[in-house]
Design brief:
Blueprint (H helix, E strand, L loop, with lengths): L2 H17 L4 H19 L6 H20 L6 H14 L5 H10 L5 H17 L2 H18 L4 H12 L9 H10 L3 H7 L1 H21 L14 H7 L1 H16 L4 H18 L5 H35 L1 H12 L3 H16 L4 H18 L4 H15 L7 H9 L5 H24 L2 H8 L2
Helix pairs in contact: 1-2, 1-15, 2-3, 2-15, 3-15, 4-14, 4-15, 5-6, 5-12, 6-7, 6-8, 6-11, 6-13, 7-8, 7-20, 8-11, 8-20, 8-21, 9-18, 9-19, 10-22, 11-21, 13-14, 15-18, 16-18, 17-18, 17-19, 18-19, 19-21, 20-21
């Protein structure tokens, strides 16, 4: 059997296993190991299982070792720790508190504050699911208590949580940078304007929704706390975001150094403000370790799969097929968008990312496209996948938080935001400068 054929069969087998809900790490690593074995065993025109077993073991060990010892990958545990400690220290919700004080009396003001709070949370944590889970517990009960339409209350937090994928720091951008060799600092900065554009679009949807149906968001009384005090209380979150963006843009700090500085700062702030204790810190580190191990396991499996794809020559065959078919730039982009949107309906973002990059990146490079711009487009597509039925991960997270609101009602609300997300995606595709402007000015 030809190596390319083995690669194609392996790819179909991975998709089948994922559809059967086999964990992504086991599906990728298991199929890649089996495929690598068959390529080596049949590569010399004879069946050589003993030699193939040795070569397969060496290839798997080398790929996993290289990935785990990647300097850039050290940002994953650092930013996970940063987000968790900032949550326990009460830093991540201060943006919401400040926005709620100012916007509460406006039509749909609490929903807008929730979206802004999700943006502020994302600027520290880098995790969309963590953002939706945390902000959902805070914002959704408050909006339901005020008489908000359950569809608006739940969907605004579900879509706001997706901002964690674009606004730096972003775990998806880190993994994309590791697997494509793209500077992660530039990817972080490239996500700022698209993230703000997405945020603005979400706020417009809330305003349009409430404007057409005022009963969906009854006006709330102004908060008793001082507006100035609420803004001043948010200074730790603003400081962390300034350090991340300013350190990367000025090149005074690398991305891992930025993460390390912020972790130290947030620990100090937590103890100074007496919101952290040694017991809470230990619990936070334990949770971060579990989350990091899960991501590293998937990343290591993906690295093994990437090595197998290169060995089989499936990526080169795909590029040759695209060139032979005479696909235009827009045809290739349209096909990529369709594939990512379809996969986003069924699989979680990290799984989609590591599964598709071995094939997408050679095509992108073959068409001479900017990898930073393409990274933003891919992450935006993965962000949309977090709220698309039938498996919108953020929607189910909010559904678990607001058990009295059915999943169907959450999806019904989310549908109003999907149109603006698709519009933002189209703008990012047609105007790459939105993504490349800040990185290019460094």
């Amino acid at each position: 059997m030809e190596p390319v054929t083995i690669g194609l069969v392996a790819l179909l087998l991975v998709v089948l296993l994922l559809a059967l809900r086999v964990p992504i790490a086991f599906a990728l690593a298991g199929v890649a190991a089996l495929g690598t074995f068959f390529v080596h065993a049949t590569g010399q025109g004879a069946w050589l299982p003993a030699e193939a077993a040795v070569q397969t073991g060496a290839a798997i060990f080398a790929d996993a070792f290289d990935l785990v010892h990647s300097y850039d990958l050290s940002m994953v545990p650092l930013f996970i720790i940063l987000g968790n400690i900032a949550f326990y220290a009460g830093i991540t919700i201060r943006i919401y508190d400040a926005a709620a004080v100012w916007l509460r009396p406006l039509p749909g003001g609490v929903a807008m504050a929730s979206i802004l709070g999700c943006g502020g949370f994302s600027a520290i944590s880098g995790s969309s699911v963590a953002c939706a889970s945390t902000m959902g517990r805070i914002c959704v009960p408050e909006m339901l208590r005020l008489g908000y339409d359950p569809r608006l209350a739940t969907s605004s937090v579900a879509v706001g949580g997706t901002l964690g994928a674009l606004i730096p720091p972003s775990i998806l951008f880190i993994l994309y940078g590791v697997f494509t060799g793209t500077p992660i600092a530039q990817l972080f900065l490239a996500g700022i304007l698209p993230g703000l554009l997405s945020l603005a679009g979400m706020l417009l949807v809330v305003a349009w929704w409430v404007g057409g149906d005022p009963a969906a968001a009854p006006r709330a009384e102004a908060a008793e706390s001082s507006r100035i005090d609420a803004v001043l209380a948010a200074w730790p979150a603003v400081l962390l975001f300034v350090i991340i963006v300013g350190g990367l843009y000025s090149r005074l700090l690398t991305a891992p150094e930025t993460a390390a500085v912020c972790v130290v700062l947030v620990v100090v702030l937590g103890f100074v403000q007496r919101r952290l204790t040694p017991e809470i810190l230990l619990r936070t580190l334990r949770e971060s370790l579990i989350q990091t191990a899960a991501i590293f396991l998937v990343a290591a499996a993906a690295k093994i799969f990437v090595g197998f794809v290169a060995l089989s020559g499936l990526d080169a065959a795909l590029v040759n097929w695209a060139e032979g078919a005479g696909l235009s730039f827009f045809a290739m982009i349209a096909a990529s968008v369709a594939i990512y949107l379809i996969l986003g309906m069924f699989f979680e973002p990290i799984g989609i990312l590591v599964l598709t990059l071995p094939f997408a990146v050679p095509l992108v490079e073959g068409f001479g496209m900017d990898l930073i711009w393409f990274g933003v487009v891919v992450v935006k597509l993965l962000e949309i996948g977090l709220i698309t039925p039938p498996v919108g991960l953020n929607v189910f997270v909010i559904g678990n938080v607001a058990r009295d609101v059915g999943i169907d009602r959450v999806f019904a609300g989310v549908m109003r935001f999907l149109a603006i997300d698709i519009l933002v995606l189209l703008i990012l595709i047609l105007f790459p400068i939105i993504s490349t402007l800040i990185p290019a000015s460094m």
